[in-house]
Every structure is written in C-alpha cells, then in structure tokens.
Write a structure and sequence with these properties.
The strands form three sheets. A five-stranded mixed sheet has the order 1-5-4-3-2. A five-stranded antiparallel sheet has the order 7-6-10-9-8. The protein folds into four domains: about 140 residues, Udp-n-acetylmuramoylalanyl-d-glutamate--2,6- Diaminopimelate Ligase, Chain: A, domain 1; about 120 residues, Beta-Lactamase (2-Layer Sandwich); about 150 residues, Reverse transcriptase/Diguanylate cyclase domain (Alpha-Beta Plaits), CATH 3.30.70; about 90 residues, no CATH class. By secondary structure, the chain is of the alpha+beta class. The protein is elongated and about 110 Å long.
C-alpha cells in the first residue's frame, strides 16, 4: 500500500479532498457534484453502508461509501436521508455510479447542496474494503503522529520547568513550537514578554492594550475576539496573574489546531511555576558577589559577612553604612560605568564596594565614620555616578549602624527606586532620591506590579477604559479634569476646553458606566487614587525595573 501515501500536508488530519486524491479512490474517477466548498472537512473514519438510515450508526466525521442501492425513490425520502447524514456531521457522501445509477439523482444533488454536504460520485467500480483499509491506516498514522508530537510538547515544557527557565525562555519555546507570535500579558493588558518568530515584536504589539481589551478573557485555552486570538489564563489556585496569547499568522488565519492548544496550555502552566519559583540568575565577581550576598542576606552568619567585607578592604566595625542603587540607562555600557565609578571613588579615598547587581543596576555600599554627615558624602557619590553614567537614577536607603542592617538599607533604596517614576523632579541641590520623596504617586508607582493595585485599578476604572478603547472616546480625560478640579465642574470644563453642558453629559455617562456617584467625596477620592494607579501602570518602566524583584 505504499502507493497510497498521504497526499496532504504532514501534521494534520486528512480531509475529504486528501482522501479523494488517494490512488485507491482516484482510480474510480471521483467528482464532487455538491458541497465543493466543504471538501476541507477532516475525515475521522470511513463507513460503508447500504442501509436506508445509516446516520444511526455514525458519530460524525465519517466518509460514507454507498453503491446507491438503499436510496429512497421519492424526493422526500432522499431529503430525509441527506438531512440525517448532515445532522450527525458526516464528512461526505460517496456514491458509486455503476450498479443502480449512472448519473446522480437530481433530488440527491439538490438535497446535498441545500445541507452543504459534499457529494462525490465514482464513475468506475472501487473496492470499498480497500478504501476503508487505506484510509483507516492513514487516520491511525495521523493519530499516532499527533500523540508523538503532543508527547514531545509535554517533554519540552517539563524540561523547561525542571531547569527553572525564565518567562522569556518559556514564551520563546512556545513561539518556536507553534511558529506563531506568543505574548505574555498581565492583568492590566501590558505585554510583558513577546516572541515573534519571523517578524518583529513591534508589529505584533502595535496598539496592544486596546486590541487586548477588546479580546474577551477566557477561563481556558480557546479562540476569542475579532482578531481570533488563542488565549489561556495564567493563574494559581484561582488567583489570575495575566494571560498568554497566541496570535494568528495573518488576519485571515483561524487555523489553530489541538497541538496549538496543548502548547499554549503547557506554556501557561510553565509560566505559573516560573512565577512561583522566581529564580534569580547572577554573575559573580568579588564586589558583585559580596554586594549580592548583602542585598539578599545570603551570608551564613554576620561574622561571615564581616569577614568578606573586611577582606575587600572595607571597615566592618564602628562604621555607618549607606546603601546606594544606581539604575543605568539601558543604552549605556554598564560594565564600563562600573569600572569608571569604582576608579573615581577609589581615587578620592572613599571606602566603598561597587558592583553590578543586574545588567542595568549598580549597587554601592558606602562606609563612613559615624560622625560624618552622610547626605554630604552621598551627594558627592551621586554626582560621581552621574559623571560615570549620565542619565542614571540614584536612590538611597537610610544609614545602617551595623553591617547586619545593610540588607534593610538596600531594600529601602530599592523601594525608593521602585517609587521613582520617570521624570520625577529632585529637590533643589540634591542629585539623588530618598524615602522622604515618596508621595501617593510614588507609592502607587512602587506598587504597580502588585496584583491588588492592578485589580483595584481595573475594578474602579476598567469599564471606563474598556468603553474608551472600544468607542474611541476619551471619558477618562474628562474624569481626570473633574477630579483634579476637586469636583468643580466649571473649573473642569475650563481646563478641558469644553462647554459646561458637554462636561455634565460626559460626567453622567461616566457615572452610568462606573456605577458611581461623583458627588460623593469618598467615591471621588477612590477614583482619583485609581487614576493615579493607572498612570503608574502605564508609565514607562525605569531601566532596571525588571531586575528589582531580587532586591525586595
């Protein structure tokens, strides 16, 4: 039977068209006389029948073979015969024009066209048993291949999980397996990771938030939205963290198969485990290693920490320590900045440890005499950082009286860095940020990755944001003007450049969409906080943001 190899593409079930192209059927001169538009239907099985009611023995997807002997004589009976086959989901009806008929009955052709059931005629005698054997062998081979491929998917993702692969590698693997763009997004529709094989991520992510908001969230892996995205939730014990999305290859593509679903489901599972384990990779040099151990409190005991610090020439006793973090511009050479800063500080006699904590974050541990003013010393250090890496953002923790408290100082500096939104102005005469600079906006910016903040913003403003995304309106700006004006509609109208009546109408629409009373001071406060949260969530991430988790 080697001559009856699969004529269609590998990796998918044979269709009616594929089966008709097999030599065992092609020799009968097959001709599609009705339902030509549906010959791409997959064939699940082949069924030979000479019964007047074959549908009662079918489950759907069968290629029905008949000599035509059981067909009813009357048109009504023919219609009923075809209706039953179509209702059960038969893939196609194949009738041999050798014994009873030499041309297909008109009533049969009309009935098949009306129900969209492919009707195929065979001009010459065909061995139906051989057709059954060949097609069933082909189908079983496809099923075995699909099982092998599915097993390969499971094994690949199991390996990723066991070695603690990061989200980027997990998403990259999914994109490579499917040949499609795969995106991981969070609860507020920010694209965190995007892998686009054979194309640019920019093209896939254009206008992402609006497109994502118009694609319904699903509880399992399924296709949804006008663009036909295949999506799956990323969640653990009922707590949703976001979703993973597989995009069609082209706008007209809706061809996601069972294997794509399996890949996306395993991607979501691997991302869930990666989030739970959160491995932190790092490269070690002397100063970098000590700083990382201090930041993450990885020393076996305080004595070990003091010994390692002292071995690098830094006093560990009777000293006040200040932790400094410098987030470097992504475009700069972090290694060169680290070398230059270390050299400059050493030349001035400063007692410091300097090292990269991540590709875009420098850590500095400054040791001072307890009596020395620390802000003056930090200002000089900060200016040295800005000389070595122009455009860096410098954040400082409060002083630590003991080496054992350095971890706390670094954590505080990290929180300040997390709360430092892009473009946040500095007080006059100061080039670094410290804890006293953090207000409400800074607090929300610091907590922008907290699921509770994301959930709060969505609960308060989600319906309004969705409405603006779907209808091209800008009711959020009107709400912002009103809240910034402390509920004064006249001031809000003036600042927005709108008439008071227009503002009144928009505010009524906002109240209806959100189900809120804008005359309530408490509810205005809640919405104002939510707006600040949205601003923080949409703000451009600072260099080094993606690495801050290990500093918490």
């Amino acid at each position: 039977m080697s001559e009856n190899r699969e004529p269609g593409p590998a990796g998918r079930s044979p269709t009616v068209a594929d089966v008709l192209a097999l030599p065992v059927l092609a020799g009968g001169g097959p001709r599609v006389v009705a339902g030509e538009e549906h010959v791409d239907r997959p064939v699940r099985w082949v069924h030979i029948t000479e019964l007047t009611d074959p549908a009662s023995f079918l489950k759907g997807g069968e290629l029905v073979l008949t000599t035509g002997m059981p067909l009813p004589e009357d048109p009504a009976g023919v219609r009923r015969y075809v209706d039953e086959l179509a209702a059960v989901g038969a893939a196609a009806l194949v009738i041999e024009l050798v014994r009873r008929y030499h041309r297909p009955p008109d009533a049969l052709v009309r009935a098949c066209r009306a129900r969209g059931l492919p009707l195929v005629t065979l001009a010459r005698d065909v061995n139906f048993l051989e057709v059954t054997q060949v097609v069933h062998t082909l189908i079983l081979g496809h099923q075995a291949e699909a099982m092998r491929r599915t097993q390969g998917v499971h094994e690949a993702f199991t390996a990723l999980t066991l070695r603690g692969a990061d989200p980027e590698e997990v998403v990259r693997t999914a994109a490579g397996m499917s040949g499609r763009t795969v995106v991981l997004e969070d609860l507020v529709h920010r694209a965190l990771v995007c892998e686009a094989p054979g194309s640019t991520a920019g093209a896939a992510l254009t206008d992402w938030e609006r497109r994502s908001r118009t694609t319904p969230v699903t509880d399992r892996a399924e296709v949804s939205g006008s663009e036909g995205w295949l999506t799956a939730p990323v969640e653990y014990q009922g707590e949703r963290w976001g979703r993973v999305v597989m995009l069609p290859v082209a706008p007209s593509d809706r061809g996601f198969g069972p294997e794509d679903v399996t890949v996306l489901e395993r991607t979501a599972m691997a991302l869930t485990i990666a989030r739970l384990t959160r491995p932190t990779p790092w490269e070690r040099t002397a100063h970098r290693g000590v700083l990382r151990d201090l930041v993450e409190q990885r020393h076996r005991d305080p004595g070990d920490a003091r010994a390692r610090v002292a071995a690098l020439g830094l006093p560990a006793e009777h000293t006040r320590f200040v932790a400094v973090l410098a987030d470097l511009p992504a475009r700069g050479d972090a290694g060169a900045a680290e070398t230059r800063l270390s050299g400059e500080l050493t030349a001035t006699g400063a007692q410091v440890l300097v090292g990269l904590l991540s590709p875009t974050r420098l850590g500095v541990l400054l040791a001072l005499r307890p009596s020395r003013p620390w802000r003056e010393a930090v200002e000089r250090l900060s200016r040295a950082v800005l000389d070595a890496a122009p455009g860096a953002t410098v954040c400082v923790g409060s002083p630590a009286g003991e080496l054992a408290d350095v971890t706390r100082s670094f954590r505080e500096a990290a929180r300040v860095a997390e709360a430092t939104a892009p473009g946040l102005p500095l007080p006059s005469g100061r080039s670094f940020h410290e804890r006293s600079d953090i207000g409400l906006r800074g607090l929300l910016f610091a907590l922008r990755d907290d699921l509770r903040v994301q959930d709060y913003a969505e609960r308060q403003l989600g319906p309004l944001l969705d409405h603006d995304a779907r209808h091209g309106t800008d009711l959020v700006t009107t709400l912002r003007s009103y809240l910034d004006a402390a509920g004064n509609k006249t001031v809000a109208a003036r600042s927005a450049g709108l008439s008071r009546e227009t503002v009144y109408q928009r505010l009524r629409a906002i109240e209806r969409l959100l189900g809120r009373d804008l005359e309530s001071g408490e509810q205005r406060t809640e919405l104002h906080v939510a707006l600040h949260a949205v601003d923080a969530l949409r703000a451009r991430r600072q260099p080094g943001d993606r690495d801050r988790g290990g500093d918490r």
